[in-house]
DUF1751-domain-containing protein
Amino acid sequence: MPTLLSTAVSLPPATRALTGLLVACTLLFTLLRLSVSPKDLRNLVGAAGGDSSLLFPWLVLVPGNVGWAPWTLLVSSFVEVNLIEFLISALTLPLAARYLERVWGAAELVKFVVAVVVVSNVIAVAVNIIEATVLRDKALFLYGMSYHGLSALQVGFLVAFTQLIPEHQVQVFGGLFHMRVKSLPMLYVTFSNIVCVLGYQSPYILVQFGWLVSWFYLRFFKYNEGVDFRGDRSETFAFHNWFPPFVQKYVARAANFVFLLAVRFKVLPSWGTDVESGSLGGAGSSPLGVGGGAYTPVPGGQRAEAERRRQLALEALDRRMAAPPPNNTPATAASVSTPPTATASTVADAGTKDGTSPAAVGGGGGGGDKAI
C-alpha cells in the first residue's frame, strides 16, 4: 500500500487526476451495481444475462439518454464494468499519460484526452442513431446498448506513441516476440473490427473511432510550442501510411480529395507553401497544397529528420552540380569542378548543426508524394 501511494503521488498532476477519475468512477459503478440484489438484477437485465450498466444511464453512455445526461460523453469513458478491463486501464493510463504529459505538458494532455473520448462517443451515438433509423430497432440501438471504458483513449495513446517513437520496439507476451510501436494501433483496430463483426459493437467500436479521432487531432489541431502552425505535417504521419503498401496510393488520393473539400468549405485551413520543396504542396498534390507543409520534428525523431533533410540537400546539390554551366561564366565552370559530394555534405552538415533546413539551403529538392 505505501508503494502504491508513493507511486500515485509521484505521478504528474494531470496523469494523477485522470487516474483518480478512473478509480472513482469505476468504484462508484461497482458500488451501485452491488447495491442491487442478484434477483432484482436478473429481473431488470434479463435472465439470459444483459448489460447491467444500462441501469445507470447517468454514469455510462446510453445513446437514447445522452440528451438527458450529456456529461456521460466524458465520464462514461472512465467507467470500467469488470475487473479485467479495470486492471488493464489502471495499468495503461498512468504509464501512457505520464510519458505524454512530460513531452506535451499537462494542458495538452488533458485537451487530447477530452477530444478523443468525447468526439469518439459523439460518433458512436451518431452511428447508433443511424442504425436505429435504418434497421428500425430503437430498443436495441438507442436503449439496449451502452458505451463505457477507455478503449478509445488506449488506441489514442498508441497513435500518439506512433507519432513520437514509431520505431521503438516493445516486447509482446513476455518477450515472445517484438513489435514496433507504429504497428500496435492497427493491430488493436483489427481486433476491434473482428469483434464488431462477431456482434460485439459495444464498446469495441470505440477503438476505431478513437484511432481516427486521435490521428485527426494530432495531424491538424495539436498545439506545437514555438511553431506557427498546428498539427504534424510530416509525411511519415500521413493517413495512407496506416494501410498496407499496396493500397496506400489509393488511400492517399482519397484522403487528398477529402482534404480539398474540407479546405474549400473552410472546415480545415490550407497548409499553404511547402518549405521543403519550395512549392505549393508536394509532387502529385493539389494546387491548394494539401500535401505540403513544413515538418516539425517530434521528440525521438530528431536524428531521422536530420538525416532525411541531409539526404534532400545532397540530392538537390548533386542535381545542380550535374547541370551544364553557362559557357560565358568561367567562375561558375570552375565551381562545378569542386567534388559534388563534399560540397553537398558540407552544406547539409552546416544546415543541421545550426538548425537551418538543409533542404532550404540546397534550394529545395525533396518533393516526394505527400498526403494528409
Observations:
- Strands lie at 169-172, 177-180, 273-274, 279-280.
